[in-house]
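Lecture 7 notes: from sequence to structure.
We start with the chain below.
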Amino acid sequence: MGKSMECSVSKTNLNCISLADPDTQKSVALLKQACLDSGFFYVVDHGISQELMDAVFAQSKKFFDLPTIEKMKLLRNEKNRGYTPVLDEILDPENQVNGDYKEGYYIGVEVPEDDPQTNKPFYGPNQWPSDEELPKWREVMEQYHSEALRVAKSVARIIALALNLEEDFFDEPEMLGEPIATLRLLHYEGGQKTGQVSNPAKGIYGAGAHSDYGLITLLATDDVVGLQICKDSSAQPQVWEYVAPVKGGFIVNLGDMLERWSNCIFRSTLHRVVLDGRQRYSIAYFVEPSHDCIVECLPTCKSESNPPKFAPITCSAYLSQRYKDTHADLTAYSNSKA
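Predicted structure tokens for the same chain:
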């Protein structure tokens, strides 16, 4: 167990950015301040209908309500597509006694099996529940995946302006033109058993403390509070703050790649999920650039007095290592997938 100590937990205030606001400079200013302060902000008026948002949550619940034996038939593969059982992931091994008390489902960009792109680590066909078992499930998820990518690209344009880059900087093919974009459905079980009620003092979490790997994450949640952020991870004791859900909107946070790109000017902030025993559902959408994109210090983020802090690395190499570090080896399930 690690030695992190904690004080009382409060609720944080985050800047809110409307994608419908015609005042671009206002949005840039709000986003820039958020990226410097906490790396977290809200995005509203994004154009995804509440009807579709509700449908994704409803379909997600239908899948997680299936018997475990049925869900294990869609166990995640080497491309990280499919089901992840409870305790599959351990995000904070220094402070967690077990893995995360959550189950999930990965859905990536759909790439046909015979496409040459499938030789890349995060490209390939998705795994889908059968239409007989869950009709319309795939249709809803693919529609949401497409819509969420549109929103992510809109947010990335504001980020580019906040970094004094051209607005379309992240639109290039090697960036978000051919992204690694992953939709992940998440379910935290309810009840009073150990694990379903988090206890940081005993190393039990819904999701352990971590920062996200990529460019940005769009998070939609139900109305159950659970997400906490730590704005200063070096402080002892650490101060954790709850992030309130926002109906119909996204909680957006920056990932480690953007922190590397910005030479640590923009922040990828430590966060975790702490559960009170209630069921919680969330929909995360992780956005990374293309496999071959070189993540290196942006020209607007370095100077003689502030040289690059990280060596260049390809997106694919960086992501592959991060997934390997945090997920169980698939051979552990060799006897579980019927």
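Points to note: The chain is about 25% helix and 20% strand. Residues 1-8 have pLDDT under 50 and may be disordered.
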